[in-house]
Amino acid sequence: MELNHPVLVSVKWQKEVFKAVEIDTSQPPYVFKCQLYDLTGVPPERQKIMVKGGLLKDDADWSTVGVKQGQKLMMMGTADEVVKAPEKGPVFMEDLPEEEQVVSLGHSAGLFNLGNTCYMNSTVQCLHSVPELKSALVKYSHSGRSNDLDQTSHMLTVATRDLFGELDKSVKPVAPMQFWMVLRKKYPQFGQLHNGVFMQQDAEECWTQLLYTLSQSLRSPGSSENVDAVKDLFGIELASRMHCQESGEESSETESVYSLKCHISHEVNHLHEGLKHGLKSELEKASPALGRSAIYLKESRINGLPRYLTIQFVRFFWKRESNQKAKILRKVDYPLELDVYDLCSDELRKQLEGPRQILRDEEGKKLGLKANEKSSGAKDNDVKMTDAEGSSNASGESSATTPQEGAPSDKETRLTGIYDLVAVLTHKGRSADSGHYVAWVKQESGKWIEFDDDNPIPQREEDIVKLSGGGDWHMAYICMYKARTV
Amino acid sequence: MADPKSGAGTSQTKPPPPKESKKKDEKKDEDLSEEDLALKQQLELYVERVQDPDPGLQKVALESMRQEIRSATSSMTSVPKPLKFLRPHYGTLKAFYETMPESDLKKYLADILSVLALTMSAEGERESLKYRLLGSEGDIGSWGHEYVRNLAGEIGQEYAKRQTVDAPIEDLMELVQQIVAFHMKHNAEPEAVDLLMEVEDLDLLVEHVDSTNFKRTCLYQTNAASILHSYIKFVKIKAELKVSTRYLPGPDDMLVLDIAYTIYLKFEEYANAMQIALLLDNMQHVRQVFTSCEDVLKKKQLCYILARHGITFQLDDEMGGDEEDREPLQEIINNSKLSESYLTLARDIEVMEPKSPEDIYKAHLLDGRASAGGSVDSARQNLAATFVNAFVNAGFGQDKLMTAPADASSGNTSGNWLFKNKEHGKTSAAASLGMILLWDVDSGLAQIDKYFHSNDNHVIAGALLGVGIVNCGVKNDCDPALALLSEYIGKEDSSIRIGAIMGLGIAYAGAQNEQIRSSLTPILNDAKAPLDVIAFTAISLGLIYVGSCNEEVAQAIIFALMDRSESELGEPLTRLLPLALGLLYLGKQESVEATAEVSKTFNEKIRKYCDITLLSCAYAGTGNVLKVQNLLGHCEAHLEKGETHQGPAVLGIAMVAMAEELGLEMSIRSLEHLLQYGEQNIRRAVPLALGLLCISNPKVNVMDTLSRLSHDTDSEVAMAAVISLGLIGAGTNNARIAGMLRNLSSYYYKDASLLFCVRIAQGLVHLGKGLLTLNPYHSDRCLLSPTALAGLVTMLFACLDMKAIILGKYHYVLYFLVLAMQPRMLMTVDENLKPLSVPVRVGQAVDVVGQAGRPKTITGFQTHSTPVLLAAGDRAELATEKYIPLSPILEGHVILKENPEYREEN
C-alpha cells in the first residue's frame, strides 16, 4: 500500500522551517504532533497545524486530509504561558461611585445657572473653598437651631451646608435649587424679577449677606462667649483714629469688618495702593467742640487679622445718569502673595514680627541651604535671638487673641501677615447687575479651576493674576487670601 | 516677408498694374512695401490667368499660385501674405471652379480653394473640407499645420452631421488616416487622439503608432511610450471634461483605455499595460500582460504592482512559468515580504524605537491643563491608549504595551495591559497585537497564540480579530487565517463569532473565497443569529466580494435585510447591511441597477438609505458629476420623519468625487455649502466626507474647516470633525494637526467621548510613526485599490452613528482601517530584490498632460537616497542614470536594472 509509504513534509513554525518531517500515515495525526513536540517543544494540545485552509484534527484520517509528498504545512502554537487575568482586576473610573470619581477628578463640581444666578454660583464656589467654613457647617448639623436665630437664617445655613456637601460628592454639576429658594426667601431682593426673569445681582451683596447669615447662625451656642466662627475666619479688626483738622479733636474707635475695600482712583495701580487708600477716608460728622458738623479724617489700621482675608475691589459706583451701578475698568494689579504688614497697627506689627522671622528663615533654608551653612556661625546668635523673641511674642499674641477669638485650635498656628491668593471672584461686563460672574478657585492640589457655572475649567496660575482689569475680560471683584501661618 | 526669389522665379512676364483699381486701393497699395506690392500684383495676375481658357496657361498659373502659398504658410504670426492678397478673389475663383470641366486642373484649383477657405470660409460652411475632398488628395502636410488642424476640426463637425443623416463616411476616414499620420509624425499626438475620438475610431491609433514606430529608431520607441502615456491621460481628461458638459456613456472611456492598453502591450511597456488593466479592472487583461511578458524581472515588477493594488491573484503555469519561477513571483503578489521591506524602511529612517501613547499625547506641552487626576485608570482612556498604541506602532512588531518584553520587572506586562481594558475593550486590546505585528504572519500568529487559550471570551474574540488583521493583504499558501478562524464562526458566544467573522473579512478582503462564502452566507439567514453577528457577517462578505457583483452574496444580504423586523431596521447596526450590499458593487457603476431595483421593495425605513448607499458605492471613484449632483439633490430636502439617508448621501459625494483633483476641489466647496444650509444629520456627515476626500492629505483649507467644526456645539459634529482631522493627517505626522489635537485634548479633557475621539485622531496622525498612508489611490493617483476604499468606507459609515458604534461596544470597527494601510514609501530593489539605495529627486508632482516637449514632472524637489517617504502629491524620479527603473511610476517597490550604457564619470 502506498499509504504506508512515509510522506515527507516541511513544517513551518514561526520563522523556522523543519524540512523533511516524516509522516507515518498509518498512525493518527496525534503521533505526528508528538513528533513536532520533540522539534518545537510545543505540547500537542497547543499545536494548530494548518493544512490548506483547515486545521489538522488529532483523530483525522491522513487519507482524507490528503497530504502530498513535499507539502508545506504551517504550525501555530507556543509553549508560552497562557495569559491569565490578574487576580484583582483594575478598578476603572467609570465603575467608581460618584464620590470617588471626584477624588480622581481633582476638583469639585460646577453649579448650574438657574437663570442669572452666576453671582450666587461664583460666591458659593469661592466660599466653598474654605475648609474651615465647611467643617463649621458640618458641626452645625449637630447643634441645631438656637433660639435667637430666625427660621429663614437657619434654613439658609442648612441649605448652604447641604450644597457644600453635594459639591464635594458629585462629579456632575449640581443644581442649587434648594439654596436658591432659601436665599430668596431670606433676602427677597435677590428675587427681583425683570421681564419675568430673575435679575442679575451684585455678587458682593450676596457674599456679604450670606456671610452675615452664617456668622449669625454659626455662633457656638454652648459657649458663653458666643464664639463666632465666621468672624474668626473672616473678621478683620480695624482700629481707626478720627482727627478733625479744624478743631484738632481726636477720637479712636475699633470696628470689625468682613472685607477690606480697595478703592480705585486714578493713582491706584496696585492692590496695595488701593487698600491704603481705602483705609483713609474723610467724613463729615458733628463735632462736639465746634458744635457743627466738620470734616474728620479717618485713618484706619488693621488691628487683628483673619485667616481668610477678603478684599473687595470697589469697582462699582452708582451712576445717576444711567441709573445703574457702573463699573470702573481700571487695571489694578494684585499679587499671588500679599503682605499687609504695613497696613497693620503698631501693636499688631510687633506680634507679627516673630512669626515673620520664622517664616523668612524657613524660606531661606528652602531656597539656599548652602548660604545658611556658610554663615552658620553668625547665624546662630540670630536664631537664638529670634527664638527668644518669637516665644515672647507668641505668648503675647496668644494672650492678646485668646479673649477675642478663644479658638483653641489657633494656638499652634500664628499669623504672619502674609497671605496667599486662594480665590478670585471676577466680573465681566459693564455694570454690577449685568454681565457675568465667575469664580476662580485654587484647589487643594494647587491647581486653579475656573468655575464658570456648571463648567469647571482648569487654569494656569499665571493667568489668574491677569484678571486685573483694564479691558472687557473678566476682572477681579473680590479676592480671597489665605493666611500663611507658622 | 514673402520670398523674393520665388516671386522672381515665376514672373516671366510682368503685366502693367490693372487700371480699374480704385483710388482707395491705390492708397492701400501705397502702404505696401515694394515687394508686397509686386507680390500682390503677381497673384492678381495668376487669378486672371487661371480663368484663361488655355489649360496650359491655367496650369502654370495654378502651379505658381501654389508655390506662393506653400512658401508662405510656414509663417504663423499672421495670415500669410499670399492668402491675404488672394482673399478678394476667393469668390471669383470659386465661381470659376464651378464652370470648369472635370479635369486634373479642376482638382488643382480645388486644392488651392481648400487652402484659401482656411481664412475665407464662413463659420460652419466647412468649405476647406469640401474642396479638400474634391481636390487632388496630395500630401496633406504640404500646406502646413494650421491647415491640417483646421481640416481636422471640420472633419469632426462633418462627421457628426453625416452620422445624423447616416451618410457614408469612407472619404472622411481616408482623410482622417492622413491627418492622424501627420499629427503623429509631428508631435501633435493629442490632436490625433482628439480627432479619432471625434470620429469614434480610436482603433486607428494602434495602426499609426505602429507605422511611426516602424520608421523611428529604437531610442524613439521608449520615448513614444512615455508620450503615449500622456495620450491616455489626455484622453482621460477629455473624457472628464465631456462628462461635465454632456454625459459620456461609460463604455466610451473604457474603449479609450482599452486602446491605451493595446498600445502599451504592443510596445512591450508591460508595467503601463498592467496599470491600465487594473484601471479597467479586467482580469483577462492582467493575465494577458503576464503571458505576453517574457522577462522575469519585469514580471516581478508587475507582481509588485498587483501586490500594491491589493488584489488576490493566482499565477498559473502559462503566466508564471514553471513552479520554480512562479514561486518568487507569487510570493511578491502575496505580499509575503511586505513586513520585511517596511521594517527596512523603518530602520533606514531610524524610527524603530517603540512609542507609547504618552509620547503621542505630549501632555507636557499642555501646561496646567494636563489630564486631571490620573490616579485611577479610566477604561475609556485605556481603550483609546490601546488604539493609539496599535496605530502608532502598526507593523513595527514591537511596542510598549502589548509586546513589551516579558522579562520586565513587572512580569508579563502584555497581560497586564490587556486586562487594563474592560470587557469588550479587551477584544480591541488583544486585536491590537495583530496590528502591531501587521503583515508579519509568522511571528504574529506565534504571539497571538497565547490569547487563544484564555478563558475570557472577549480575549478570544480579540485574538481571532488579531489573526485577521495580521493577515490583512498578505496571502499564504496554508491559509492560516481561514484554518484558524473558520473553527470559531459557529461558536455560541456572539463576541467570539464577530471576532472570527470580522477577522475573515479583513484577511480575505477581495479574495472572493468560495469556502468562506459558503460558511458565512447561512449566518445571514439564520433567524436565531443576533443582529450584530448578522451585520458583521454582511460586512465581511461585502469585503471579501468587494466589487465582484456576486449574485449569490447579494441575494443573501437582500434576504437578511428583508427578514429584519421593524424595530431592528431602526438599529444603527442594521445600516451596515445596505453598505455590505453596496461594497459588492463598489465602483461597478451600472451593474448595480438590478440590485438597486430590488432595494425599492424594501421597508420604507431602510429603502432610501439602501438606495443612496448603493448609488454611492457603485459610483465610488468614478468622478461622475451627474451622480454627485444627484446626491447633492438628496441633501437639499428637509426631512421630517427622521430619515437617515442623507448621511450616506454626503459620504457618497466624497466617494464619487474623490476620483480626480478638480472634482475633489469642487465637492469640498459644495460640502462647505451643505455645512451652512444643511440640517444636523448632514452636518454630522460633512466632516467625514471631508476626511475621505483628503485622506492622508492634509490640505490647509480642509484642516481649517475641520478645526472650526471640532469646536461645534453639536457634539457629534465635533466628534466627526476630530476623527476626520486624524484621517486627513493619517500617517503624516503633520505638526499643525498634532498641535490642534493636543489643544483639543485639553479643551475636551472633561468630555470622555470627545477625548476618546481626540486620542484616536492623535493615533491616526502618527499612524505607523508617519510611514503609512490610508490613501486608497496609488500609482500616481491613477489606481484605486478597492479593498482599501472598502475598508475606509466601512469605518466612515460606522462613524455616521458614532455613539452607537465607535463609542459603544463596537469600537473595533476602527480596525477596518487596516485595509487601507500601506507604507508610503519608494523602495528601490536590485535584480535580486534586495534593497538598493540610489539617489532620487522627490518633489511636488506637476501635471504634464498635453504639454509639448519634455516638461519637468516635479517641482521644488530635494534629493534623497532610497528608501524614501513620499507625501501626498509627491513624485519621485531617479537622480542617476546608472539604473533603469522597471516601472514608470516610482512608488512602492521598484526594481532597478543596471543601465548598460552608463559610464562612470572620470
Characterize this entry briefly.
Chain A: Residues 388-400 have a biased composition (Low complexity). The complex is a heterodimer of chains A (486) and B (906). Chain A has 486 residues and is an alpha+beta fold.
Written account of the structure:
The complex is a heterodimer of chains A (486) and B (906). Chain A is of the alpha+beta class. Chain A has two domains: 7-76, Ubiquitin-like (UB roll) (Roll); 104-219 and 230-345 and 414-485, Alpha-Beta Complex (Cathepsin B, Chain A), CATH 3.90.70. Chain A is built from 14 helices and 21 strands. In chain A, strands 10, 13, 16, 17, 18, 19, 20 and 21 form an eight-stranded mixed sheet that branches. A five-stranded mixed sheet of chain A has the order 2-1-5-3-4, with helices on one face. Chain A has a four-stranded antiparallel sheet with strand order 9-8-12-11. Among the domains of chain B are: 46-192, no CATH class; 268-334, no CATH class; 825-898, no CATH class. In chain B, the strands form four sheets. In chain B, strands 8-5-11-10 form a four-stranded mixed sheet, covered by helices on one side. A three-stranded antiparallel sheet of chain B has the order 7-6-9, with no helix packed on it. In chain B, helix 13 runs antiparallel to helix 14, helix 15 (270-279) runs antiparallel to helix 16 and helix 22 runs parallel beside helix 24. Chain B is elongated and about 110 Å long. Residues 1-26, 211-226, 241-249 and 407-413 of chain B have low confidence and may be disordered.
